[in-house]
């Protein structure tokens, strides 16, 4: 979004407090307010300011520093805060439909404050609500006002105790009874219990339940979704035939009540089948607007992608917070120096730059990808809502499914590694809970697992790419897609003939160079994966065995490289567009190049193995270009953090505060945590025992 007025930036982005960080801010090559306005636009910045100021000024959202809340209190507080958010109504239903990026902004702001709250709100309003909106029809619109005014509270139930990633194999059933025009939702045994369902543990009254749909005569039509009431909204007691409960304490996110449920022949009206892709007539006939099951499944994949697309954004939020803390710390933490009497900020050290600045670049690149993918998904859902059942719509669903299936692993793993690097880069101070890096690490960790195990999800993306190649090889079909992410593969044979030809390090400082290398890498891995699968099948392996034996060094890196290429391409095109203000072009170009080269450098062995690189010069050139870009971005790092960091109340880290008063803020926080003027509650018991031991010794 382009800036609309300079005055808007001043009003929406107040000056940051003066302090030790001013030394770096004064050396920045760009205006951080101009960049924030260019990247986000006034509408997003205004919403952010409203949310952050509301949270800070409402006593219900006050931080409970030094107080360890019990599990029940965590659940209660998170639910009360969620209710308060719904009362505040930052966005109307019309706003959400008209401006999808405002929805993503709202979730990101809540997650920056506390992901237990952000996820609880997201599951109810968006995952549950979006499933009804995009998978249902006009007859289901009655649920949307009830979601907004809290008449009902929702959850999204796919996973079962014995099935997670393999969603097709879930065993909950929905048999249609034409005599009563009802579906009978049933759990055949405890292994088919719905499991790991957020909000289900204590608070959800309704669930979108995925089950195998059976029509009279016993024919199964595959996985479909249904709206099922699981609790009475007035009493929160389970409905007849429903056993529902809480799963207990987790490693993190304990404000989210993850739960389980079993259904014993629970009857629901026929109309509560979410029927966008398939329906059942009152007489029991199954009908679908799609020509074949593949088209229907392709269209439904896009709607199932919402959770994975959301997790991409959630992971980036976690990385934003961690990198903001670590870089502000690094710019004010002074250690060693050229002389005994002089200490320099650790950010001046090349090692610290190399450890942290690529993750800063990753934030900007992945954040742009996350927003663009969110808009792509919104386009798909609007098409479904408009009853678009075209072949293009089904293909768009498949493409978004492939992007989301690799986007979640890339984003969550990047955040996982980045948060740990930030924790270590802050030394011992990073290990203090009050500085929040430990909570960020724990709260990000499930992003690698839920909505599909990362390594399993990558198989979805590689299978998509291999299917395109197979159609091309066997029938001469063009390799193309609605979002054009695979169109470059049409030149597959020519790209494989290319070699690295950059003449100097300076030539590598544009993301066009790694972009070309990535195109070759994806083509190479696609060819190798295809040949490996073919070889496995010729040697007698069945399809399952062939795919299983082709993942580790073939299909897995193929999926990751393809998604990295997509991120690099989208950010390269964004940062090199004519509308980029002149004062921002250099810093955005460096961020684009650094992310692209740093990501590419993790595939150096493959680039040599396949012959794209030859001799030691190519590898060293990439390394030197990364270090050169880190050096060039070092003075911009604090200003780049100012663009992405929330206010101090939300960031909630003494070593990451905007004033940069590192030691003053940390000392104050530790004194508050330790309550030094209070005698610890265990002291009286200790003194009493010590006295008794002394008496016993004297008697002996």
Automatic annotation (TrEMBL):
InterPro entries per the UniProt record, alphabetical: ACO, ACOX_C_alpha1, Acyl-CoA_Oxase/DH_mid-dom, Acyl-CoA_Oxase/DH_mid-dom_sf, Acyl-CoA_oxidase, Acyl-CoA_oxidase_C, AcylCo_DH-like_C, AcylCoA_DH/oxidase_NM_dom_sf
- The Acyl-CoA oxidase C-terminal domain sits at 512-686
Protein family per UniProt? Belongs to the acyl-CoA oxidase family.
Residues recorded as binding FAD, renumbered to this chain, are: 159, 198
Taxonomy, top ranks, is:
Eukaryota, Metazoa, Chordata, Craniata, Vertebrata
- Would I find Flavoprotein among this entry's keywords? yes
Could you tell me what this protein is called? Acyl-coenzyme A oxidase
Acyl-CoA oxidase C-alpha1 domain sequence ranges = 302-466
The GO cellular component terms are:
peroxisome
Q: In which pathway does it act?
A: Lipid metabolism; peroxisomal fatty acid beta-oxidation
One GO term in the molecular function aspect is:
fatty acid binding
Species source reads: Enhydra lutris kenyoni
What reaction does this catalyse?
hexadecanedioyl-CoA + O2 = (2E)-hexadecenedioyl-CoA + H2O2; (2S)-pristanoyl-CoA + O2 = (2E)-pristenoyl-CoA + H2O2; hexadecanoyl-CoA + O2 = (2E)-hexadecenoyl-CoA + H2O2; a 2,3-saturated acyl-CoA + O2 = a (2E)-enoyl-CoA + H2O2
The record's section on Pfam families has: ACOX (PF01756), ACOX_C_alpha1 (PF22924), Acyl-CoA_dh_M (PF02770)
| Task of the protein | Oxidizes the CoA-esters of 2-methyl-branched fatty acids.
Cofactor dependence:
FAD
The gene for this chain is LOC111149037
Q: Where is the active site?
A: 451
One record GO biological process: fatty acid beta-oxidation using acyl-CoA oxidase
**Keywords linked to the UniProt accession:** FAD, Fatty acid metabolism, Flavoprotein, Lipid metabolism, Oxidoreductase, Peroxisome
Kindly indicate whether the keyword Flavoprotein belongs to this entry.
yes
